[in-house]
Amino acid sequence: MIFLSDFISAEVVDVRQHRVGRVRDLVVVMAEPFPRVTGIILKGNRKVRSLDWSVVRSWDNKELSLKVDEASLQPHTRTDSELWLSRQILDKQIVDMDGRRVVRVNDLQLSQVEGTMLLVGVDIGARGLARRVGLEGVGRRLAAVLGRDWPQKLISWEAVDPVKSDVSSVKLRIAHTKLAKLHPADIADIVNELSPEDRNAVFAALDDEKAADTLEEIDEPQMQASILERLDVERASDILEAMAPDEVADLLADMPRERAQLLLQKMEEDEAENVEELLAYREDTAGGLMTTEYVAVLHTLTAAEAIDRLRQLEPDAESVYYVYVVDGEEHLLGVLSLRDLIVAKPETKIRDFMIKNVISVRVDAGPREVAEVTSKYNLLAVPVVDQHNRIQGIVTVDDVMERVMPARAGGRRRRIF
Amino acid sequence: MLLFAVIGPGIITGNVDNDATGITGYALAGSQFGYDLLWLLVVTAICLVAIQSMVARMGTVTGKGLSDLIRERFGVAPTLWVMIFLFFANAATTVAEFAGIAGASQLLFGNAARFVAIPIAAVLVWFVVLRGSFRVVERVLLLLTLVYLGYIVSAVLAHPKWGDVIHHTVVPTFHFTPAYILIFITIVGTTITPWMAFFQQSNVADKGLHPDDLKYERIDTAAGIVMLNVVAFFIIVATGATVFAAHVHVDPSDPSAFSKIALALKPLAGQYAEQLFAIGLLNASLMAASVLPLSTTYAITEAFGLERGIDKSFGEAPVFLTIYTTMIVIGAGIAMFPSAPLVLITNLPNVINGMMLPLLLPLLIVLANDKRIMGRYANSPLFNVFSGVVLVFLTVVTLAFLASIFFPGLFSGH
């Protein structure tokens, strides 16, 4: 196997066996599926120069021989989509797409295919570390004495996504295309491990919908706020619009006031209004936990009309567990499941088959009470009403569980410090 | 509100630095030399400003830990060396913390207490940090640092000659004797440590601060250093005005040294001076014993890209848990030996820490100057001059220390 570490510091000699310098770095051009080595950065006579990979004749044992003599060497032609392996990839963090985690690059595996040198894999194992400090042989012998194999830990270049922000810059147009295909919960776990700058490079590559889902999954207000603070206001407000209003309210509550105000102003008016309503409630009450995304229909409608109304509203999957029935002044009269609506005869008035004694909580109820109610009645969501029994929103079971369960059970990373 | 959210890493780091070696070091300084070493606190504070403000800035700007930056900028081999040094320095310091726990428990409950206190402390530290919450530990222990206010009260009640105190704070006094050189190096070695740089930067990075928060982070760092040095100052004044003034001879290698330096709290606590001293020492040791293994393990696993996190199982993060547990076992295990040479134990970390600093600080300076890492927040020329002077000072102290080990007669004047 060929590794980048075999080349670094290798002596470069020209066709007349004159010493030209030592290899400092290899240059690749991004290509699918594997980047191709196009140049060498070398240092000799106290100056750094580059040369084209095509003048390399052969290499072995830390020596690289060229086809030409030193005088006729040309610097390699630079392009926009090139990477310096040692400077930009080696020792940096990358995302292992199969393992869905952030790992560190200990070495890079190269492979010669039909006369070209390709970057094919990333070494993330202890063996790569040992190779870098010249102890791979010692380790292998030690393993042999113990009667064991010392396996390489390699992942294919196709299965990684570089996170370094200057690598995955828009210029390269490969920015996190692979990462963006993961589930938001996985992206959130990965983002957790990255520095703020790299985090934002990831968010730059996600569309608004995916970014919103990922941000919701992060559910650590401090980190959410720090991500939004580094995005420009337009983009941040676009992402917020795609999030559930209750999540937005929680997030804004943790931000400096001026910044939160600015973001609210940039959001679409009705979205912003929803959020502002929620912000008025204290965080540790049903009002603070609820979302304003719910479906309510007038009690005078028929089943068919109610279904039409649902089509018009196009509610999110999360908010359509139950259809609440209200009068003209938003008083909560009853509740229906989607199933009830569909199996009912189209012309029946919904007030005739709705469940009338609907379970609800007051806006000032504590999270524990909300949790008890949802678990006692096996509800997926519970409506929240004001003192006049007017519906204000709903609390979904996942939001209330998150609040009352200890952090560990939530499966989120605990901060160390 | 924002200020309160940001303030933390510096203050926590500063307070954790008042650990077992710190408390005893300052108390020995005051007992043996009165106020003669007060000026050194001004010098160490300046050194700390240079180092800690640099790491705080790097943590805020890059959002990365120090070992992360070292690995990315310098590659595997230098990182490996730094990590090996860090491990041994911090393991040695952890031993000293458990020795502090042993000493405190002996003062409180008698000589056999160490055999009970050390295992309990080890299990407690392991369990609470890993399976409980570090934040809770941090809060409780920070609250307990109020014990050190006792030194301020005690110092005032002992009626020191304030003129002398101020004189020795601003005018350096130096004796070319082995005892003075040793205590001089001890104070530098215990106050300025590599782990503080790693700990504070990880802590800052973990908070996810924005470069706009830098001014708050600066206040936080300065506050931590001031708190650290105010406590150190009053420990020296209190011991100077009592133990030293009463001509009590304190020999650090004598087992009764602890109860002698505890006399500094007598003006405040009367007959309970020993107990108060022991509680302070116990708290200092426990806090550092919780922080050191965790921050070391975090730094090492970060440098090599290994799974880390306190909520991981052994299968998920084997190296993290192995290093963490090993450090506590080493710390508690060595301190358990009844014949353990406690003086050597408490001084060894200062040697290793002291040797590591002149190697680590140049790396910090290179990192903080790298425009590709720091952008417009890179070191200013003035700051480079400042940190350069600090580097020279620390190098001279370390060389002097090494000289005193290899040529024991060098400073004895014979």
What does this structure look like?
In chain A, strand 2 and strand 3 form a beta hairpin. Helices cover 35% and strands 24% of the residues of chain A. With 417 residues, chain A is α+β, with helices and mostly antiparallel strands. In chain A, the strands form 5 sheets. In chain A, strands 2, 3, 4, 5, 6, 7 and 8 form a 7-stranded mixed β-sheet that branches. In chain A, strands 1-11-12-13 form a 4-stranded antiparallel β-sheet. A 3-stranded antiparallel β-sheet of chain A has the order 10-9-14. Chain A has 4 domains: 84 residues, SH3 type barrels (Roll); 77 residues, no CATH class; 105 residues, MgtE N-terminal fold; 110 residues, CBS-domain, CATH 3.10.580. Chain B has 414 residues and is mostly helical. Chain B has a single domain, classed as Amino acid/polyamine transporter I, CATH 1.20.1740. In chain B, 77% of the residues lie in helices and 0% in strands. Chain B has 20 helices and no strands. In chain B, helix 4 packs antiparallel against helix 13, helix 8 runs antiparallel to helix 16 and helix 9 crosses helix 13. The longest helix of chain B is centred in the first third of the chain and has 34 residues. Chain B starts with a helix and ends in an 8-residue tail after the last helix. The N terminus of chain B is likely disordered. Classes of the chains: A alpha+beta (417), B mainly alpha (414). Chains A and B meet through strand 10, helix 6 and helix 8 of A and helix 5, helix 6 and helix 12 of B.
